[in-house]
Description:
This protein is mainly β.
Amino acid sequence: MFFSGLVVASLALWGKGVDAAFGLTTNTDTYVVDAGSSNPLKFTVDRTNCDITSINYYGSELQYQSTGSHIGSGLGSATVTATQSGDYIKITCTTSTLTHYYVAHSGDPIIYMATYTTAEPSVGELRYIARLNADLLPNEEPFGTVSNIDGGTAIEGSDVYLVGSETRSKFYSSERFIDDQRHCEHTHPLKFFATTDNDRRVWICPPSLHDPQSIRDIRRRTLPPVHHSLLVSTEIIAKANITSDINTNNVGSYTGLYWYMNSGHVQTESYRQGLHGPYLMYFSRSGTPSTDIDTSFFADLGITGYVATSGRGYVSGTASGADSSLDWVVHWYNDAAQYWTYTSSSGSFTSPAMKPGTYTMVYYQGEYVVATSSVTVTAGSTTTKNISGSVKTGTTLFKIGEWDGQPTGFLNAASQLRMHPSDSRMSSWTSTSTYTVGSSSASSFPMAIFKSVNSPITIKFTATSSQTGAATLRIGTTLSFAGGRPQVTVNSYTGSAPSAPTNLDSRGVTRGAYRGLGEVYDVSLPSGTIVAGTNTITISVISGSSGDEYLSPNFIFDCVELFQ
Ligand SMILES: *[C@@H]1O[C@H](CO)[C@@H](O)[C@H](O)[C@H]1NC(C)=O
């Protein structure tokens, strides 16, 4: 009796909790990898097309069974090979322009990945999507249900939905790359699973900033500054720096867990090719993975395009001069790679380990460019480079918002990241059409202006007799849609109509995006335009295009400043 009881107990353990044997099984159509982790992880890769067709973790099938997990919508066909060497198993999937790697390290509950490209996939974006079992993994982190479209009705394009009274979209799971440490799909530990024993979590993790082969090598950067000058300006212009893309999306039948390497969504620069990664899928029962998972062993695995730490260099220095109430970021980019880092509060910074080369080096307050420079990185050394700059305008008569390259603080700005402008949880776009300098707060100034919704916006400003000289009204924007740009009137003066901004050919504000090319428009006001007493300024959206409501031409505000 005693003996058989032990057997039963150990069998139960074997089902879930006992170390499995690390190893590779080669079948006719599949490779099966046992990661040898203490919470058993076994995954299956189709030898014809590189799809993951099964992910068995801690006794549960986490892979959606009708469609695999893969790059894009699947490679279609690929040459798939597998090797085991000591504690590592590497599966290599090769097409004419793309090589995708799956790597397992004995004992790690992790599917390590990297993707090497020589051309952009024909679908126009490069992403890994794990299609996971929505019954077991319905929940998304860190933004909850914002991208859960299960049971919803499409209200815009085929990607913004109404679920009950809430607007939802896969795009609302976006997070700036610099801030995206990890995102996750998981079971509901409190609802129908009574204990954490039944929790399962699947995380997508970018490598840590300390990792020499950071994904940040490849992530898309933005184009150089674009400046629309209505009359005259010499300022450095805000420039896009960090963009983001879809992270998670429960569509009902499966839950999508994404790693975007690039896409045409509000695309502001050319795609980079080369090695993207390593990135990884981490499995846990309740724990949260470290943000500093070591992937340096990729250097020993024959991964095309991998550059080890020894082949890299650093930039360190001190940034100074910008508004210290905002975060400071230093950004390096060239056609092959890009990197970011926040500075310390004192402005000191050290870059991630960078590939050798010459980089444009940019200093931002928030996301607004205050200085641009250049630096050359050599392998095995640290280049010292300080950078200094600040926003330069003049004597401020009024300023609405901050020069931070973001609509932060304006009406509906926080909501816009996670819902559609039509969402009933948004504040009314039209209830406060007049902003009065001195008494209105920035939170009543709309973060965006739509030709068919809330154009024009009126600003009332009381000037003194000493403020009636020539002045500049500067309108900073972060993203435009359908050619939307500002035209201004000040009392009886009408500013000229600026030419259309570069068309990114992508919906923006309605998909939770705010970051584009960051056009800044200056309106030079001749002396006498501003009068002592009350002044009325209007900002309208102009465009040769039209559209309904929130798809009418529009742009997003960064800051509005009148200065002399
Ligand atoms: C860079 O800035 C630091 C901190 O202000 C300063 O100590 C150092 O001398 C500067 N280096 C150069 C080359 O200007």
